[in-house]
Hints:
By secondary structure, the protein is mostly helical. Among the domains are: 23-109, no CATH class; 263-354, no CATH class. Helices cover 69% and strands 3% of the residues. The chain has helices at 43-76, 80-89, 91-96, 100-106, 117-130, 136-149, 155-171, 175-186, 192-203, 209-226, 229-243, 248-262, 267-286, 290-305, 311-327, 331-349, and strands at residues 23-27, 32-36, 307-308. A 3-stranded antiparallel beta sheet has the order 1-2-3. Strand 1 (23-27) and strand 2 (32-36) form a beta hairpin. Helix 12 (248-262) packs antiparallel against helix 13. It is flat.
Amino acid sequence: xxxxxxxxxxxxxxxxxxxxxxxxxxxxxxxxxxxxxxxxxxxxxxxxxxxxxxxxxxxxxxxxxxxxxxxxxxxxxxxxxxxxxxxxxxxxxxxxxxxxxxxxxxxxxxxxxxxxxxxxxxxxxxxxxxxxxxxxxxxxxxxxxxxxxxxxxxxxxxxxxxxxxxxxxxxxxxxxxxxxxxxxxxxxxxxxxxxxxxxxxxxxxxxxxxxxxxxxxxxxxxxxxxxxxxxxxxxxxxxxxxxxxxxxxxxxxxxxxxxxxxxxxxxxxxxxxxxxxxxxxxxxxxxxxxxxxxxxxxxxxxxxxxxxxxxxxxxxxxxxxxxxxxxxxxxxxxxxxxxxxxxxxxxxxxxxxx
Length: 354
C-alpha cells in the first residue's frame, strides 16, 4: 500500500545545486596563475572563477607576507643568521608566491655576518634576475662573489655570473662593455644553458637583422638542447618579429614551429598557444590572407573562452576577431564577437573583472 506524505510535513524540498569544475596552474617563473573551466557559461560564473583564483593567490600571498615581516624584524634586530634560516625554511612559499619585497628586505642584511654568505649572495642574485632588477646592488653582489668565492665556483657558474654582468651593462646602455663581458663569459664554458643566455643577450644589441637572426638562432638551438622549451619558444617569437616585415613567410614558419611546441595541453601553455595564434592572425592579415587569419583568431577566441585570468587578452582577441570577420564578410560573426567584447570590456571597466 502506498503511503502519502502528510500535507503538514516540514521536510524541506531539496534545492538544485550547480557543479563547476576548475583547473588552475601557476607558472612560478612568470608569477602567473591561469585557470580553465568547461563550465563558464555566464558572467556570474566567470566572476566566481576569478574570485576562486584570487583567493588562491591571496592565501599564499598572505602567508608569504607574514614570513617577510618576521624576516624584517629579525634583520632589524641584527639576527642575520636567524633571518637567513627563516628564508631557507620557507623557500617553497617564496618560490610559489615570489615577492619583490623579500628582495628589498634582504638587501638590508649584512651578508658578511653569515657563515653561509656565498649561498645567501647567490640567492639574492637569483631573486634579482627573476624579477628583472639589474641594478647596482646586483652588480656589486656579483663582484663580492667573484672576489671572495671564485675558487669555489666552477667555470659554468663563473660564466653565468659574468653573463649577468653583461646583461647589467647592456641594460645600462654600456653596449661595448656588455659585448666585452659576454665574450669573456663565452670563454668560460660550453654549457648549453650558459651559451643560450649569452647569445640571447648579444641578439639584443646586434646592429643588423642578420646578426639578430644569427644570435637568436644560436640561442634557440641551445635552449632546445637543454630542454628549456619556454625560452626556446621566446627565441622563436623574437625571430618571427625580426623577420615580420622583410620575410613574412619566414616569420610565419617560426610562429608555426612555436605553436606546435606549445600544444601540450597544459593550461599555461594553452594561453601561450593563444598568444602565438594571435601573432599568427596579425601576420596573416598583414599579407592579405584573411581566410586563414579568421581560422586562427577563431581558435584564439575558443581557447580563451573557458580560461580564467586572461579576460583582457580575451577581450582583445574578440575585437580583433570582429575586425577579421568583417574582412571576410562574416557579419554575423563580427557582431557576435563585438557584442561579447563590449560586454567583457564593460565588466573590466566597472571593476567586475580584474
